[in-house]
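Sample entry (128 residues):
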Amino acid sequence: MLFAAVLFLSIGVLAQGKFDKWPEMKTYHGTLSQTFHPAEEGDLKPIRTRSHELYANAKLVAASPIPGEYDNDDIRKLIKRMVKEADKLNALVVLQEQNTTIMKQFNIVHSTFHEIAGMCKKEEKQAK
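Predicted structure, serialized as tokens:
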């Protein structure tokens, strides 16, 4: 039981640690996680009530300094795309579009975040 608790805490710390130097991205990721995972299970209420927050957090990421080890043209382009896609998602929610339409766009938002996270992981490996 103790081993399972330690393992669970270790995994959580590793997942959170990637963006410790980039608090705006960490905040964006938190909002994304809290809204996307329920949506995967069919509950779109969290994103319907927090889409503006997700979009606002994406804009904060874009306005924030990118940590040096991640700062490159590819990351900058992905961040611009992340903002654009979050804006589209928010617009669909405001228009009260159907769940399938919202979920299709939400998957794009989610995938864009994972592209950024993957690029950051790649940059971390190259920096070592």
